[in-house]
Each structure stands twice: as C-alpha cells, then as structure tokens.
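Renewal narrative, Specific Aim 1. Our central claim is that a sequence can be written position by position from structural information alone. The example that follows is taken directly from our test logs and has not been curated for this report. It begins with the structure tokens describing the chain, in the order in which they were read.
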C-alpha cells in the first residue's frame, strides 16, 4: 500500500471518492430518485447569459449553482432562472427546495423569492456567512 496526497490524487480518483460517498449514502436510504436538473438562458448569438444546476431527489430540489453573467445582473434574470428551475422540480413531484449562499444580499433575494433561512454559519469563510434556505411548496407527510 502507499499514500498519495493533494495533486498526486488524480481527478478521476477524487471523483470516485465523491461518487462512493454518495452511493453509500443512497444505499442507506430507500427510494432515491436522483436526477440532474438544469436551466439556462442564451442570447441570440448562443452566448450563455444565466443558468442554474442541481438535482432533484427525495421530492426535494437541491440547487447547487445559480449564475448570471456579470453585466446582466440586477435585471431579474437570477430570479427568473430560479423560478424556471423550481417549475421543473414541481413537475417532478418535489415538495420543497434547498439552496445555499455565502452572500447576505443573495440570501435576502432568496428570502424575497419565498425561501426561509433554516441555518446560517457566521464566518464560514472569513467575512462571509453561509446561509441555508428552504422553500416549502407542500408539507411532507
């Protein structure tokens, strides 16, 4: 046996570790129906302007990334991308959505869009608070 660390661990092996942890967790539960989910907006030339990615699983939308091109921010595109991602999740039978951010102003935007802060960690990264927010469409049984 031998150990590898940092850059000596291949990208493929890092991904195998990540996949192994997720697989193990899903084996402990029943009914995993994980599916990737995405929504993106393009201009007329095909350039990406905004988008979101995540997954749906266990009747929950997990939003991993929400991005708007810098020069297009402040125009409501982020909210529209999120609403469209939520609509897809609702069609898949999701009853709630979970999203996180390190930015106070973004957390306030999510709250404006119907999310409630369920946890926060001050100085998660020096100078930033990690906000975890949940939006409930239908209560769980």
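The sequence written for that structure reads:
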């Amino acid at each position: 046996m031998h150990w590898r660390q940092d850059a000596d661990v291949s990208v493929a092996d890092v991904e195998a570790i990540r996949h192994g942890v997720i697989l193990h967790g899903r084996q402990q539960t029943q009914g995993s129906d994980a599916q990737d989910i995405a929504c993106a907006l393009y201009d007329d030339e095909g350039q990406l302007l905004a988008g979101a990615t995540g997954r749906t699983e266990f009747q929950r939308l997990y939003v991993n990334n929400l991005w708007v091109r810098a020069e297009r921010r402040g125009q409501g595109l982020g909210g529209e991308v999120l609403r469209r991602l939520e609509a897809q999740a609702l069609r898949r039978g999701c009853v709630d959505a979970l999203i996180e951010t390190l930015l106070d102003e973004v957390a306030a935007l999510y709250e404006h869009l119907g999310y409630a802060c369920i946890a926060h960690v001050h100085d998660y990264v020096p100078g930033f608070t990690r906000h975890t927010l949940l939006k409930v469409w239908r209560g769980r049984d």
